[in-house]
Amino acid sequence: MTLEQLRQKSHQLPLEPGVYIMKDKTGKVIYVGKAKKLKNRVSSYFMAVESHLPKVYQMVMHVNDFDFIVTQSEFEALVLECSLIKQYSPKYNILLKDDKGYHYIKITPGDWPDIQAAKQKIDDGSTYIGPYTSSFIVTQSVELAKKAFLLPSCKKRFPQDIGRERPCLNYHIKQCCGVCTGKISQAQYREMVDRAIAYITTGADKIIKDLQAEMQRYSENLEFEKAAAVRDQLQSLQRLNERQKVVFESKVDMDAIALAKGEGKVCVVVLKFRQGRLSDKDEYLLKDDGAPADILNEFVARYYTTRADLPKEVLLELELPDRPLIEQLLSERRGSKAELLIPQRGEKLRLVKMAYDNAVTGISYRSRRPAREIAALDELAKLLGLEEPPAYIESYDISNLGESYKVCGMVVFKDGRPYRRAYKRFKIQTVVGQDDYSSMKEALTRRLTRLKNGDADEGFATTPDLILLDGGKGHVSAIRPLVAEMGLQIPVFGMVKDQKHRTRAIALDGSEVALSSFKAAFKLVTTIQDEVHRYAISYQRKLHKNSALKSELTNIPGVGEKRAKQLLGAFQSLEEISLAPVQVLMDRGKLPKSAALAVYNYFNGK
Questions:
Q1: How far, in Å, are 258, 261, 267, 459 from residue 369 at the CA level?
Q2: Apex 108 CA angle, 106 and 109, nearest 5
Q3: Over the range 94-126, which residues count as b (16 or more CB within 10 Å of their CB) and which as e?
Q4: Looking at residue 550, what is its pLDDT?
Q5: CA gyration radius for the chain?
Q6: Cβ neighbours, 10 Å, residue 33
Q7: How many CB atoms lie within 10 A of CB 405?
Q8: pTM for this predicted structure
Q9: Which of 117, 174, 372, 448 is the most exposed place for a label (fewest CB within 10 A)?
């Protein structure tokens, strides 16, 4: 079917809730969606196609036909949509592939066994504990057991490496018993391993009681060295157990979900808290093809239709369009009331922040970029309501000293870092008096005109994702209409300072948003504001200095404005000009002999 035929067919749909099923020319289902009013939702796909987001545009370009199913309510449509997505796995829906295979805790064979995390069970003579469905639980259990019982975590092999090298740092800070020193017998080591295995399988409480009794027995028998060794294990286990005991005081089962964007991807992390403890972590890498709230909305709906362990509370960082429907779905599947919460303060907000930090780390690990840069741009996008983190930011500041030295500096931050090759500076030429708004408008007009005219210069050829002005809402009100008049869709915001000239807030159109609670974004905006101020004022000072030097040079007979500028371009300073011989003034300064003699005589008192 052509686009026009699809549009005509969509106009025949009822204004009722339901599910629509998009198909390609082979009849394969490529997208499933729900709608409160089928006619309005489906027809919107085939109107103004060029304005759709990239994912939607690609999907529409591959649609050859569609089916629909009318439901009694929007909630029924949500349930049916989730069921059909699970059945067909359409290309353009979020697909949550469960990458959790089975995982095991492995105890290697021999007199000096090691405890390891294993992804599969093989016939190699080892003993396996499991299976577990969570790699997080397996890895954490192995790490905690080794720390608690001071077992080596290095790659040395025993007994081959005993006594061959000096012990590592872990031994000296009492995080390893030091098998490599030769002071631990095979029997003692085996006992530690057995306790670690018991700790993994039965928990810490029983092991702590056994160690306390053993330490008491050694003390009564005056075996103080053995008692001290058991004491060290006991203290390590107690410290570790206390630290891992409770993450959150509430005993309500809850999940914390957050996402981070970067490098064309979205990382979504789900942290599961059961009985106040962090019990598991799920991490998904998705295509970045929409606004954060829309991606999270679709993710949450899909996620909880494929899980049996459903929490009472789901903590989110963003409001979801389908929040009431998803709450109803979660409650019905759980058999009791469940809520989606957006915490604003306290411990629950801390858990969401923990999930967000993990999502940022997930993006950072895959993109090989520092997490702080990704977090800063992602936070800034959320703060300003941008659909994507701004990869290319331009910032402007006006600096003036009287009538003659009005300038504007433009700095560029690319992927959160200064991009100095694209910096630009402007002399303000048409503004009378110290009018910062008009000066800013002149500079932006000149810059954006170069962009519209297709200027090949790198600093002018790139359309910025965001413009930040050093100033408040007055600057924003002056520049936003200019950007719109030029037919450009570039977000414009201001950077507001406090009385001590420190970054305080972001200026919107008529209001402000404080930056204090957005630490990564606050640091980035502060860096941008400091850099653009430095760049603008350094240019203004340079112009002032050059003007002063020109004034002195033009006092010399035969040296006018043009020759003064020529000399300042050829020599590093006034002092260098004063020390230059006549021939050098003629050669480098391009002066005629008479003017060169005049300059030489002026500075040498002749």
A1: 19, 12, 14, 24
A2: 140
A3: bebeeeeeebbbbbeeeebbbbebbeeeeeeeb
A4: 57
A5: 34
A6: 24
A7: 17
A8: 0.61
A9: 174
Query: What confidence score (pLDDT) does residue 240 get?
Result: 57
Closest among 441, 471, 526, 488 to 426, alpha carbons compared: 441
Angle at 302 between CA 297 and CA 304, to 5 degrees: 100
The token pair that represents 465 in the structure block:
């994702």
Peptide bond into 292 cis (omega under 30): no
Q: Are 270 and 303 in contact (CB under 8 A)?
A: yes
Report CA-CA distances (Å) from 146 to 119, 142, 202, 236.
Answer: 19, 6, 15, 10
Under a CB-based contact definition with an 8 Å cutoff, are residues 359 and 368 in contact? no
> Are 505 and 515 within 8 A, CB to CB?
yes
The region that residue 436 occupies, defined by phi over 0 for left and psi between -120 and 50 for alpha, beta otherwise, is: alpha
- The Cα 161–Cα 142 span in angstroms is 22
Token pair 């930011």: residue: 393
How many residues can be counted in the chain?
606
Query: Residue 597 burial (CB < 10 Å; 0-12/13-18/19+)?
Result: middle
- Give average pLDDT by consecutive 10-residue segment, the chain, 606 residues: 91 92 93 93 91 85 93 90 87 70 82 88 84 72 81 86 84 84 88 84 73 85 82 70 54 89 84 78 81 89 85 92 92 92 89 88 76 84 85 90 75 92 88 84 92 87 92 88 91 84 75 74 89 85 63 75 79 78 86 86 73
Give the strand pairing for 313-316 and 254-262. Answer: parallel
What integer pLDDT is reported at residue 245 of this predicted model?
44
Residue 549 DSSP class: H
Burial of 541 (0-12, 13-18, 19+ CB in 10 A): middle
* Whether the Cβ atoms of residue 331 and residue 337 lie closer than 8 Å to each other: yes
DSSP 8-class letter at 2: -
Encode burial over 412-444: b for 16+ CB neighbours within 10 A, e otherwise. Answer: bbbbbeebeebbbbbebeebeeeebebbbbbbb
CA distances from 517 to 142, 344, 383, 520 (A): 36, 11, 10, 9
